[in-house]
Each structure stands twice: as C-alpha cells, then as structure tokens.
Amino acid sequence: xxxxxxxxxxxxxxxxxxxxxxxxxxxxxxxxxxxxxxxxxxxxxxxxxxxxxxxxxxxxxxxxxxxxxxxxxxxxxxxxxxxxxxxxxxxxxxxxxxxxxxxxxxxxxxxxxxxxxxxxxxxxxxxxxxxxxxxxxxxxxxxxxxxxxxxxxxxxxxxxxxxxxxxxxxxxxxxxxxxxxxxxxxxxxxxxxxxxxxxxxxxxxxxxxxxxxxxxxxxxxxxxxxxxxxxxxxxxxxxxxxxxxxxxxxxxxxxxxxxxxxxxxxxxxxxxxxxxxxxxxxxxxxxxxxxxxxxxx
Length: 297
Known about the structure:
single chain, mainly alpha, 69% helix, globular
C-alpha cells in the first residue's frame, strides 16, 4: 500500500455515534428476535436475523468505516456509499421485519405508546401516503438525481452537515423505495404483486441514464475531484468512469434479483397470501413479502 494511502487510513478514527447507534439497533433487534423464537420457533427465521444484521453492517460500512473516509478523494467510493445506502442496506433491513422484532425487543414502556401510535388514525393516514408506491418511487428517484446535480453534489464535499443530510436522504428514500417491494409487517399491499417487477424495472432507467452519462462523458463532471489528492494511480476521469460502471452494474443486478424472485413467487403454487389489516400491532398476521412469511404472536 502506498505510504500516502497508509497515512490516510491511519488518520481514520472510529465514529463513536454511528457505531453506537448500529450496535444498539443490533442489540434490540437480537433481543426481540430471540423472544419471538422462544415464543414460536417457526415465527421468524434465522436468515431474517442474518439479513437485518447484514443491512446494519452495510450501513456502518457506508457511514463509519475507513472506506467511507475516502469518499472525498475518489468518486467511485462516493458512489459505493450511495449504493450501500439506497439499494443494499434498506432491503436487507426491511427483510428482517424490523418493526415487528423491535416491538418485541424494546422495553414495554416504549412498546405501549408505539402500539397506540400505530392505531392513531392520522398516523395511519400518513403511513398510507408515505408508503404509496408512486410516492416511494418518486422520492427515491428525485433523491438520486437531485443529489447528483453538480452544484448540489458539491455541497456534501464542502460541509460535514450537508454530508449527513445527504446520507440521511439516501437511506430514508431507500427505505421508502424498498417498502412496497419487501412489504414488511405491518405493510398492506397497495398494488397487484405483478406491478412490482415493473416498478423495479422503471427504477433502473434513471440509474442507467445517470451511470451511462458518467461512464461515457469525456470530461470530469464533478470538478471537486480535480483538486483532491490522488490516493491511487487513477485519473479523475478514470475515477468517474469507474463510478459510472459501478452504479450501472450494481443497480441493474440489485433490481433484477428481487424482480425475478417476486415473479417466481407469483408463478409458484403458493402465490400471494392475503394481507390482513385493521388489527393492532403484535396481533396481526402480515402478508407475503419478498423473501418469507412472518407471523406475529
């Protein structure tokens, strides 16, 4: 490893706040998961625990790992962060049925107000609006394209606060985007399941357009990377081309896999199970989601 790269990694320090938040989320989830498994061994699977923990780890890699410290120097690292925050961590976390498990992992003094909040009519209306597939799709695509406008893209590179806003925006819109796909408890299907592969295919179009522009453009789009020290033997234009190719490949593959899985689920004999609604938390049996069925004690 070149000395200047080694020095850069040596200057990295563990981000205490991010690491603590990820650790607490993992602890509460594991506590709820073991409680659910004790109540009924077939209630929630081991692979869902693995999916959630993998999602948390992906989130930490994007926000707090030594790799994240390189995003001001290499565009492809910055793009990798975006992929982890929008298309890797959110679906893995949602596959773990986090709302259900957290309700069993948190102390009861927190669960009771949360249960009442779920049943509050204004909150239910807000939830229906926020999880509508059209809004979820638009929010994710606007965030993706908006943060890649050169003038907006430069803000997080100049300001730590704007960087945190960008991280939060990508992660939250990623959760919204994947919510209609995964349909974790207590979601209710708003569209026919056949619409979801189309939903995913349409999401590839803005990603493909942006990634193709970055990969084939003959100039450096983000001038901030012209002035940064080069940590590896790669030019700013080559760095941009790598970022575009990375986004193109990853986005296409990540959207294709669930589209195929959902199509197979629909065509299989067990198809789509009906989703019940109108029952309070912890007493409702959630519907079929991308991945597995989860029941509630």
